[in-house]
Amino acid sequence: QVQLVESGGGLVQAGGSLRLSCVASGTIFSISSMGWYRQAPGKQRELVATITPGGSRNYADSVAGRFTISRDNGKNTVYLQMNNLKPEDTAVYYCRSGIRYWGQGTQVTVSS
Fold it and tell me: How far apart are CA 56 and CA 9, in angstroms?
């Protein structure tokens, strides 16, 4: 059974940084595309960033240049480094493996 466990969320002031982690189990991580998504209150879940098994990255326009997705296949972990955070980045952030599996989410709150 595939499990994804996120961590690293919290409360930070605007301009600050956070690093999210997602540890995967029960899947062949090295051949899985991984992604980070977020959902703000009253809004639909949206893509933040994705990374392929080969390391190709894709970012939403709203986070490009501020966020960096990376992966460590030896640790079955995908990361999201978030810099220069803005209040509009406040959301629950979810890890996704492939197209089917989701983590439980971690809250990120950015105060102005």
Answer: 24
